[in-house]
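The passage that follows is intended for readers who have already worked through the single-chain material. We present the inputs for a multi-component assembly, then the predicted structure in tokenized form, and finally a short commentary. You are encouraged to pause after the input and sketch how you expect the pieces to fit together before reading on.
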Amino acid sequence: MKVRLENLAKQFGKILAVNNLNLTVRKNELLAVIGPSGCGKTTLLRLIAGLEAPDRGTIYLENKILFSKEKGIFVPPYRRKVGMVFQNYTLWPHMDIFHNIAYPLKIKRAKRNTVKREVERALSLVRLNHITKRYPHEISGGEQQRVALARALVMNPEILLLDEPLSNLDAKLREEMRFEIKRIQKETKLTVIYVTHDQNEAMAIADRIAVMRDGSLIQVDTPRKIYNYPKTEFVARFIGRTNLISCQVKEIGGKKVIELDGVVIKIDGIGDIPAGKRMFSIRPEDIKLTRKGEGGVGEIKSIIYLGNIVNYKLSIGSTDLEVQTTPAEVFEVGERVYLNICHATPVDQCP
Amino acid sequence: MLIAVVVVLLILVAYPLALVLLKSFSTGEIFSWENYFKIFTSRLNYIALFNTLYVGVAVTFLATLIGVTIAWLVTRTDIVGKSIIRNLIVLTFITPAYIEAIAWIQLLGRSGYINNLFRNFFNMKAPLIKLYSLEGIIFIMGIHLYPLVFLATSNVLYATDPLLEDAATLSGSRGFKMLTTITLPLALPSILSAAILVFIQTISCFGVAAVIGLPAGKYLLTTRVYTALSHYDVNIACAVSVILIIFAGIALFAYRMLLRKKRYIVTTSRTQLPTPIKLGKWKIPIALILFVFLSITVLLPLASIFLSSFLKTWGIPLSLKNLSLKNYGAVLFKEAVTARAFRNSSIFAAVAATAAIFIGFISSYFSIRTRIAGRRILDFLVTLPLAIPGPVLATAMILSFINLYNTPWIIIIAYTVAFAPYAVRNVSGALQKIDPALEEIGWMSGSSWIRTIKDIIFPLIKSGVFIGWILVFLIAIREIPLSTMLYTQGTETVGTLLFSLGFETGGLEVVSTIAVIVMGITIIGYLIIEPLGKIKWGD
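Having made your guess, compare it with the prediction:
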């Protein structure tokens, strides 16, 4: 189901955790909310779940109002059709796995048979079937996370809220669970809002990514658009590695070039941009290096050879650039090479 | 070092207890069950046994009910005056139970303030409430001990991850359902272990049991040991002691088992609490009831003690012209016995606290930092006295160290043995927080073992040691059963005075004066150590 947030705001003391936020989450979409710690992403989830009441704004589920300050509507969490998974699983340590998952059904006074059937359904959805009698401290972190997912899914929610669900797992399990979450989302056709601070996680599983900072959304786009066309310096820096350079855009012979510390560099793919001073985000892999050619020349300062890729630091005048190439041609430290930029995105500077 | 301390503890703890056990089986020279047979056939004894269980269970129930309720109100609702409530409860807790008992005698005793008031108003003959009864003991001990449950429960409710309750909210759980299926079950191990401590402390209590129970002929096992011994019925005293130790021992064992289970409880370092439940229209009435309860149980008794301490003689009406400072002058300077008692108590408590800290440090160090065989025996021996009620320990001391009977040493040894567990808990709490690597680096820097302890360990656990010392000092300075059963002329303590004067109506104004001074010392001591770190009250 579609979730729509309008002018949402929440303040804790002097901190504006969520600041006049507008967002539409599409039906059956997996939206990743990403941002540095303390940016308000967890608060955003808690507002949608109904664990906190916003100070201002409206929350819609399809056309139904879940919260409206103006109209005095607050639908309590258990009537919102949301399931939520927290960072540290938060399974109840005094209940075994079966009772952890069955709890929401028991609160609803479901029949014993129904409870059993639904718990089994939820467990098979997360592919855990044989640990129902064990207690949370007796199973692994990955299993605990699956149980937490099953508990959230057992109520057949319309919306699944995930608050950094994988950050307590080790790297290998984390990757496995990403695919699991994606699979479960496809199987259940849930709308998922997924909060994380890990950009790789967001890139890997999200349909769209919302980048958040200081309680506001900076950019909401598909992973490819976020990566290739970051709107601000912050987004460019937060997602992936990048060179942020401030330089002059000029037109020479009908072609756009940039001038950096007096060096003119050929550049493609910056679109229609007026001449003048501008900030650009240039991904390291978007800079091509050649021994022979024309245009700007830089000097290689250091090399890190990683096998499948090679990372260089090179300098043009007083500016340092990061460059990433394939190992087809490897340059030496001190070598002077020609630069060719094949993609650059103009970004707004952050306040 | 380890061996030396183990030997000392074997002599001071194991040997006396072994003697008690041995004596409990002897009538004359041979081994027999006769003493135990007597316990279950003589009315005086089995009634005492029954009374002890009744009082123990009732106090545990009462204290748990009050403690958990207030802890929940303070940590989970938007009740007003949370810090005042907390402070008043702490005040209840640090007030010695015996002083509370004296206060209640002043209020509800035969010529107590409240009974007098009612008598004058309604022209009643019988007292309003029968204080001298088992229920009187239950009431006073319940009021005195519920703070233990309150502190344990509110600590765990503060520390529990609030997301566990959020997850339940999202599952549709709320209000009473949340309380009974999530909040309380999560706190249950802590609540139960506090309840067990309450039970142990209740069946070990002596001062209150004596001053409230004995005038009405109501015996508990502790007072039974005391009276048996004062009638030189040593064998019966020992047999009753063994039964008392068995009860306390079982409870202590259950407590240790529970502590193991507690480790699985999820706690958080976040200070954020779940959104407080809004009491709404109940907010003011509930707060009012709570404040009335606290005023009656803490402020009223303390006010009574305070005012009575200025009375020229007990029994005359409380009016301005009947008040004077003469009691204080008499207690502190004029009367040789009271002045001596204060001096004795200070010295005994200080020496015992120092010895207890020394033993406590060595025992904690070995059991936390080393894998040496024998460290468990050491820990067991040091903490064993937690399960030994005062009169029992006093009996054991008399049996073992009769040669020291006319000296202060028997009292000092008894204090040290009885209160070493408090020292252990506070020192080991501090020691556990130190990374062993700090010490290892000390050795690698070429420092010797003693030097490392002096230069590295001690500075880091200083506040834990200080808290432990002050705590033992504060408990020892007004200790009653050990002092009462072990003193002779010249070694009177504050406790012996409080105890002997508490039975005499004529002494109530002097008891009040002594009590006020004890309260003053206790409050000052508490205020000194409270900001320094977590105080471990024997759990």
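Commentary: Chain B has a mean pLDDT of 87. Residues 322-539 of chain B form a domain with the MetI-like fold fold (CATH 1.10.3720.10). How closely did your sketch match?
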